[in-house]
Amino acid sequence: MALFVGLDVSLKTTSICVVEADGSPVWEGKAESEPTTLIKAITRWREQIALVGIEACPLSDWLYGALVECGFRMVCIETRHAQRFLSSRPNKTDRSDARGIADMMRLGHYRPVHVKSKASQILRTTLIARRKFVDHMLAIEDSIRGLLKVHGLKPGLIHRARFAAKVEALLSEAPELRMAIEPLLEVRNAMRVKKALLDRQLSQVARKDEICKRLMTISGVLGRLRTEARTGQKQ
Questions:
Q1: Percentage of the residues of the chain whose pLDDT score is greater than 90
Q2: Residue 44: CA atoms inside 13 Å, Cβ hemisphere, count?
Q3: What is the pLDDT of residues 133-160, one digit of tens each?
Q4: Tens digit of pLDDT for each residue in 200-226?
Q5: Sheet with 74-77, edge to edge strand ranges
Q6: Those residues with Cβ within 8 angstroms of residue 33's Cβ, 6 or more apart along the chain or in another chain
Q7: Taking every annotated instance into account, which residue ranges of this chain make up the domain Transposase IS110-like N-terminal (predicted)?
Q8: Could you report how far apart the first and last alpha carbons of the chain are, in Å?
Q9: Is the pTM of this model over 0.85?
Q10: Is pLDDT above 70 for 229?
């Protein structure tokens, strides 16, 4: 008889429920939220398991990929749809949610979401990291501008490549501010060097990607992307 598995994932542990097609429970338990322990917990029913369900969460992509590689048929379900189904159950516990997800699998009452490939996840993480990196660099520049403005020193509108030289020129007029401003400026300059390196690496990735190369052929796209990369601001 076909079996259906529901996984309710939290940061440390995952509640597991295995049910038959008629809803009869086969096994309920918990395991660490690690691929190896989850696979070990359900591998005894490997040949009988028809579907394994997991709710979309920060760990779902990682666990989903590992279980698929191990040969399990997986479904990652949309969070809001799952919550509507699970909220109708009398008890709201991890164990109850795992049972509810297993029931969703056997009834076909779920809305699957696309799970990105490992390569796509790594690229997305890199792009998010770059965005955070640029945000922090711009925040430091704004802090330097604000601190200098209090003392009547105004960098004004200036290209980012000349920002450090302009600040140094202003500090020569007020050397007593060096102790406060120079550490921020040094951090900002180091971040700018690292950003340039990261941008070059991402450009190399883009040149090898067929979709990116196709987008580059659209009039205006290349200039816009270069502007965003240079300024750190989304157009």
A1: 66
A2: 5
A3: 999 999 999 999 999 999 999 988 888 8
A4: 998 888 888 888 778 777 776 555 555
A5: 25-32, 13-20, 3-9, 49-55, 74-77
A6: 9, 10, 11, 12, 13, 14, 59, 63
A7: 5-149
A8: 56
A9: no
A10: no
Tokens linked to 113: 């979401």
Residue 230 binned pLDDT confidence (cut-offs 50, 70, 90): low
Question: CATH number of the domain at 3-107, out of 3.40.50.1000, 3.30.420.10, 1.10.3720.10, 3.40.630.30?
Answer: 3.30.420.10
Please state the three-class secondary structure of 76-136 as a single string.
Answer: EECHHHHHHHHCCCCCCCHHHHHHHHHHHHHHCCCCECCCCCHHHHHHHHHHHHHHHHHHH
| Residue 37 banded pLDDT, cuts 50, 70, 90 | very high
